[in-house]
Input
Amino acid sequence: MRANNNREEATVPTVIAQCPRCDTSVPVISTAMLVTATPDTSDERVAGTVTWLCAGCDDLVSQQISWPALLQLVRIGVQLVEEDETDPRPVHPDHPADGAPLTADDVLELHELLSTTNWFDGLESPSPLKGTAP
Output
């Protein structure tokens, strides 16, 4: 038995997406899709891509879309992802950040610093000038 309330339940818009890989048409809720705008493509008709997980083949699918389709998807609540030129991933030891590698003198200086009793205090304050004790 359902209670009869005067309030309306919130509904999430659904899109019928056809997978280009398995040719299955499946309903996908708008919050399970992502749209990426890429207006700088060579084809003026292509505005970006829409990405979703196909329930037919369990594959992550990306498909190019036109401007009207992109705008309609964003209007119904599909998340618009802005592409950023910078890579937000943290630096990994296999892919170190640019910069000069440590020299033998740098390693010796680090060991000397760590042998002092107050080396941690130097981390909390501004770094001392090179050649002066912390």
